[in-house]
Specification:
This protein has about 250 residues and is α/β, with parallel strands linked by helices. The chain has one domain: Rossmann fold. Helices cover about 45% and strands about 15% of the residues. It has 8 helices and 7 strands. Strands 3-2-1-4-5-6-7 form a 7-stranded parallel β-sheet, with helices on both faces. Helix 2 links the parallel strand 2 and strand 3. The longest helix is centred in the middle third of the chain and has 28 residues. It is globular. It comes from Streptomyces buecherae. Keywords: Oxidoreductase. GO terms for molecular function: oxidoreductase activity, acting on the CH-OH group of donors, NAD or NADP as acceptor. InterPro entries: KR_dom (IPR057326), NAD(P)-bd_dom_sf (IPR036291), SDR_fam (IPR002347).
Length: about 250
């Protein structure tokens, strides 16, 4: 009988994070969502019927403390989903403040690195042949004016994915990424309602003519963490309706 795995999803109180957590829970895994917003993570964990922890991915003390507590309660992490990140800070090359770019990179790149490093150390120490899935973006490969800071961070996440994959392979730990195009979260739907010029402009870039649903991203994440992907590591899987083809 297959052992139930412990799955840690950072940014689990957000739209994509909730969908990923729900998909793993539906698959019978033990799921822990982590977020720095204590009220949101508690409410979301209760709604999903999963565990919740308050964790700041940019704070090593917070990471260590919460991983210690999680392991004491549930045992080692088998699957890490690095979903937490900053999406809302944008600006053109000539206008984006350097301090804003620093915040983007600190959250999206350094945060992903720190979570990967600390969880991987524990996997190796406890001989867990686990898997890590990073949530990236096709923006790391296809630029959009005004979004270069975010897109640069996601290109770096893809690089961290390959870095971790090549170094952790000897321990049986697989590391991959899911790279969506625009995802129809509740926040995005509110800002770009169906039929709006902004929504039509984005859909016009996508051969399949629709934005990704959060469940599309979740399904790809569950796949990459599953035995069905046992010989896949170091890849960044586009979930973009063909947008990279254009």
């Amino acid at each position: 009988m297959k052992r139930t795995r412990t799955v840690l999803v950072t940014g689990g109180a957000g739209g994509i994070g909730q969908a990923v957590a729900r998909a793993f829970a539906t698959a019978g895994e033990t799921v822990v969502i982590a977020d720095r917003d204590a009220e949101r993570v508690t409410a979301t964990a209760q709604a999903l019927g999963v565990h919740g922890r308050v964790l700041d991915i940019t704070d090593e003390a917070s990471i260590e403390r919460e991983l210690d507590a999680l392991e004491a309660e549930l045992g080692p992490v088998d699957v890490l989903v690095n979903n937490a990140g900053l999406l809302t800070t944008h600006g053109t090359l000539m206008e984006l403040p350097g301090s804003d770019l620093d915040t983007i990179l600190r959250t999206n790149v350094v945060g992903t690195f720190l979570m990967t490093q600390h969880v991987a150390r524990r996997m190796v120490a406890t001989h867990v042949t686990g898997t890590i899935v990073n949530i990236s973006s096709i923006g790391g490969r296809q630029p959009t004016p005004g979004m270069g800071g975010y897109e640069s961070s996601k290109a770096a996440v893809d690089a961290v994915t390959r870095w971790a994959a090549i170094e952790l392979a000897e321990h049986g730990i697989r590391v991959n990424a899911v790279a969506p195009g625009p995802v129809l979260t509740e926040m995005l739907a509110a800002g770009m309602p169906e039929g709006s010029p902004q929504r039509q402009a984005w859909e016009g870039r996508i051969p399949l003519r629709r934005l990704a649903a959060v469940d599309d991203v979740a399904a790809a994440t569950v796949f990459l963490a599953s035995d069905a992907a046992a010989h896949i590591t170091g890849t960044s899987l586009p979930v973009d309706g063909g947008q990279l083809l254009t």
